Structure formats: C-alpha cells, structure tokens
Amino acid sequence: MVPVEKALQLVGNRIKPTQETITISMSDSLGFVLGKDILSPINMPPFRQSAMDGYALGSTEEKTFSLIGEVQAGDDKDPELKKGEAIRIFTGAPVPSEAKLVIMQEKVDISENKVILHESVKPNANIRPAGEQIKEGEIALTKGKTITAAGIGYLATLGITHIEVYKKPSIAIIATGNELVPPGQKLKHGQIYESNSVMLSSALKTSGFADISFYKVEDEYQATRSIIEKAIQQYDVVLISGGISVGDYDFVGKVLRDLQVDEIFYKVKQKPGKPLYFAQKDNTTIFALPGNPASSLSCFYIYVLPALQKISGLQEYHLTRTTSISNSEYSKKGERAEFLKASLKNDKVTILDGQASSMLRSFALANALVYLPEEVSKVNPGDRLQVINLP
Asked: Given a cut of 80, is residue 247 above it in pLDDT?
C-alpha cells in the first residue's frame, strides 16, 4: 500500500503527454491543446480602423471642417480627404488614407454641413493602425496553449478555420458486477442500479473528453478477461469500475495479472479509495477504480483526471489546490489520509455529512474535497485545511 503523495508521483512520472496531433475545426477545439504554433495569416486589424463613432479629419490645424460624406463599417471605399475636410465615420470602419485622426462625435457640433471642434486635437487619435493587435506572420498562439472560448474568438478574427491540436485519449469504461442493472429497469431483490459508468462518463465530458465507450461485464473470469483484453488493445485509457478487491467473485486483479500488465501500484493509504489500481500495458493506461461510487469518483478526480489531462498535453494538469478556513469539527478514524466531500464558499470550507464511500448524496452537494494527510487526526473550526476545487 503506497501513500497518497507517492501514488500521485508515480502517476505523474509514468504518464507521458501524447505526441499525436490531429487537425480539427477551430469551432470544435475548446479545451484542446495546440500541437504547433499558429501564425497570423493577416494583419489585425487588416486596415486603419476607426475606434469609435465620430469624424475623420483631413488636417489638425483648423477648428471648422467641411463635411463631405461618410464611411460605414464594411465599406470598401477609400474617399479622398483634403485639408479642412471631414468625413462621418463609424466604429470599425476603414479610415481614409489621408485622414489625420478621428474625433469623437461628442466633441463636435454640426451646423450646415460643417464640423465644428470644441477642443484641440492630436494626430492619429482614435485610429487603430493596421496590425495593431498582431501583424501577419507573427505567432498568434503558441504550441502547448489550451484553447479557450476567448482563444476561439481570437482565431476567428484572424480568419482561421482549422488548427492542429494534440489528440485526446480514447477511453473505455468497464463496469463489473452481477448486481448491477441499468436505471429504468425494475430492481429485483439483491440488485442495485449501475451509476458509476454514467457518473464517470459525465465527469469525463465535463472536462472535455468525448471519445468514450462503455462495457458491462458480469462476475465471471473468462468474460472479464475477454472485455479487458479487448479494451487494452483498442483504447488509450481503460477505466475499470469494481471487481478489483479480493473477494471470491472479484476477477479484475487476476485478469490483469494473467494479461501481464505492468502493475505500478495497488492500494493507496487513503480513504475513500484504498483499492485503487494503476497499471500500463504497451501504450494503454489502466486504472481499476473501487466499485463504491464515492470512492470511484474521488479516485477519478485525484488520479485519473490529471493523468488524462497530462496525456492531452496540458501543462497544468492537477486540480487546483488551495487552503481555506474550516467551519467544521471532524475526527479521523485510523491513520489513512482522507478526501472529504466539502462545500467551499468565501474561503470557508464545510465538511459535509455522509462521507461513506457508498454515498453519492454528499458528493452531489460538494464543490470541493478537503484533503487530510495521514498525520492530521483532528479538525477544529478555524483550522486551515487543504482544499481541492472540483470542476
């Protein structure tokens, strides 16, 4: 059994970022990591552009100008503008070549096609020069950058439609257990609804992973082996829910040994989630998660999600850790580290009731996990606690 920090270190050391890139539509790239630098194909803005509604002036010395026309956003004309002349112009419109500045409409009076200034003016005022934001050929976004909504908008302003990104891993979720039936069916005595696969799938989708396949296997050796062996051959990451303990009908551990996977660790000195299993075979990463739902989801957030994000090329792949002031009193039983479902608000954290590994109700109310290392046995109100923010 390995300590939590050692388990995190082993996962971090063994997981390698993918080198495989794909080209995708820019509009579908949210959350992906750039696989190469993006160079701007144009100047932005591509022309001298008015920064506001006002008047483009042909000189700077006069106080009164003759109004000779207007230019709207989207116009492709470049009207000639002489000294002492002005043109009505709107935000985003191309500024005439001879214009010396744009003056705000609030700073002039208009009388009989005359523009009369209230104050002195400065050359180039309120004109965005061509290439002010970025020039053609300059790096727009660098390799390794995670694409955000703002990044997509930025690339759209440059006319970019497709980008090269690191491929996200394909993921198989395998749920084990004779007692499990899909929600919607009538339960027989001894059966429970299978929740882990839909829970894990939702957690994956929330974090931007969409290439997910599901398998259900009963507690029988050959069936378990067939499904796991197939998944290892076909997917980048295999998540196995349940069957990793040492009961008479828990076949996952035996199957993985028989398949000669490279076991990196089995069992972590933590609560919940002690029977966590981490292994690799060829190019596939394998996590066997505890069957209890809260244990499974805790292990997902602490170990699996960071691994997936690192594979996908993210530089910062762990969930954010902070410290917050405890609202709660809590006594730990035993010497294992603990991850406690909690509610974080305004730098104050409340440890929720219902911490049992089988209970998801408290997880449904939580927005954070409180981490208590092995050496911490008691929490009092006012203590500073380590807090992991959930997505």
From this structure: no
Render pLDDT for 157-190 as a digit per residue (tens, 0 to 9).
Answer: 999 999 999 999 999 999 987 666 777 778 878 7
- The one-letter amino acid at 22: I
Residue written as token pair 């089995």: 266
**CA dist., res. 104 & res. 281, Å (int):** 67
Would you say 149 and 191 are in contact if contact means Cβ atoms under 8 Å apart? no
* Short-list 206, 201, 270, CA closest to 239: 201
pLDDT reported for residue 178? 65
Q: What is the pLDDT of residues 284-309, one digit of tens each?
A: 999 999 988 999 999 999 999 999 99
Q: How far apart are CA 100 and CA 128, in angstroms?
A: 12
What is d(CA 104, CA 56) in angstroms, rounded to the nearest whole number? 9
**In the structure encoding, which two tokens stand for residue 24, read together?**
């995708």
> Among 190, 169, 155, 130, which residue's Cα sits nearest to residue 317?
169
* CB hemisphere CA count around 59 (13 angstroms): 11
Which residues are within 8 A (CB) of 325 and not within 5 positions of it... i.e. 6 or more apart?
347, 348, 349, 382, 383, 384, 385
Tokens 């309120």 appear where?
Answer: 126
Q: Spell out the alpha helix ranges (H) of the chain.
A: 4-14, 149-157, 196-206, 221-234, 252-258, 293-299, 305-311, 361-365
Sheet strands (E) in 74-211: 85-89, 101-104, 108-111, 114-117, 127-128, 139-141, 162-166, 171-176, 180-181, 192-193
The dihedral through the CA atoms of 86, 89, 91, 93 has a sign that is negative
Residues 366-376 have pLDDT tens digits of 999 999 999 99
E-strand spans in 54-96?
54-57, 64-71, 85-89
Decide the pairing of beta strands 384-389 and 262-266. unpaired
- The 10 Å Cβ neighbour count of residue 135 is 12
Burial of 70 (0-12, 13-18, 19+ CB in 10 A): middle
Asked whether the whole model's pTM tops 0.90, one would answer no
* Interacting residues of 231 by C-beta distance below 8 A, sequence separation 6+: 172, 174, 215, 238
Q: Which amino acid is at 169?
A: P
